[in-house]
Amino acid sequence: MLLVATDLHFTDQPDDNYRFGLLPWLNRLAGESKDKERVCLILGDLTDKKNRHDALLVNRITSEIEACDHITHFIILKGNHDYIEETVPFFKFLDNRNQITFVIDPQRVPLPNGKTAYCIPHIRKNDEFDAAVAKAIASYKEDKYDYLLLHQTFTGAQASNGSEMKGVYFDQLAPLHKKGVRILSGDIHVPQDLGPLTYVGSPYAVHFGDTFKPRCMVITNKGLETDVRYPAPKKRSVALKPDAGIPSHLKKGDHVKIQVMLPREEFHQWELIRASMLEKIKARGLLCFGLEIKEQKPKEAQPPLSTEKETPAQTTLNDGDVVNNFVAANKIDSDVAEMAKKIMERSNDY
Ligand SMILES: [Mn+2]
Predict the structure, then answer these.
(1) How far does the centroid of ligand 1 lie from the alpha carbon of residue 290, in Å?
(2) Nearest C-alpha neighbor of 194 from the set 164, 154, 228, 226
(3) How far is the CA of 35 from the centre of ligand 1 (A)?
(4) Are residues 135 and 248 in the same domain?
């Protein structure tokens, strides 16, 4: 069997601790399989920061991988968050261990279940990626393979805020798709099919405002695919009226940032409203990462005859949306965008 997970974004932040249950959980799933070979594919972004990791984090990741006694082999692709220097990703040293293959360059990787994967880890330059795909197609003609594993942004992919990403083109993968090669990619956190390829998606919400349904995939040796879902907290930003209850979809342990919509003339009641909101958050067992006032503009302030719709952005934009909009408008590198989101999240932490 193949267990497929990607974009784990492990960090040393206590708030991200929920991500660490994933490997033991995948290991338990592997333990339920009758297959002899139980291979875990991680399609990149093992960690969030690219370099200079804390000793605790590094030792935790290595020991958690080693503790996966039901998983016979790990194949880990280099994602864009896994390196600064292309040839020396931080976790390259994992490749020296028996049960781990850490793939840095495009290459054919035989899977222990008898299948073969062609891996193209993250490539920064689009033309270099295109050249790697051309090589992969040539390689298929010489000798077939079953899977093409990637970590790349393809044009048309849907980001967590619904906007469309720009990157490399998926049309070039069509010849492999037509031959029946299963194409799986990491990088985009929202699980989705895009032309010939499938984004597996993150196993949990990574940023505030991530509303997608996270998943991992299990693929049997016969090629049957099932989505599996690791129980992890949601990370939601919500805007509420001062007397509103907490939305029912938020459960114990979920991470929330709350904006309370308040007309300016009621700002003086904030201390009371804040205290009552904190009570509600506590009663529901939520972890609060931000509680702030958002001014509710008076109705008469809006131009009454305007044909323009009020942009929902005024009331529902969260930090992630703000960054994503800016990134889309200014064509900013996705790594920089991720960093900006992190900074905004931390600066809002209580
Ligand atoms: Mn990622």
Answers:
(1) 24
(2) 154
(3) 30
(4) no
Reported as a single tens digit per residue, the pLDDT across 62-116 is 999 999 999 999 999 999 999 999 999 999 999 988 899 999 999 999 998 899 9
Per-residue pLDDT of 226-282, as tens digits, reads 999 999 999 999 999 999 999 999 999 999 999 999 999 999 999 999 999 999 999
- 146 CA distance to ligand 1 middle (Å): 24
Q: What does the H/E/C string look like for 77-103?
A: ECCCCCCCCCCCCHHHHHHHCCCEEEE
Q: For residue 278, how far is its CA from the centre of ligand 1 (angstroms)?
A: 32
Q: Is 19 helix (H, G, I), strand (E, B) or coil?
A: helix
Could you tell me if 35 and 93 lie in one domain? yes
Full residue range of the structural domain in which residue 247 is found:
235-317
Residue with tokens 């206590």: 14
Q: What is the mean pLDDT of the chain?
A: 91
**Structural domains counted in the chain:** 2
Do 293 and 186 share a structural domain? no
Q: Are residues 214 and 286 in the same domain?
A: no
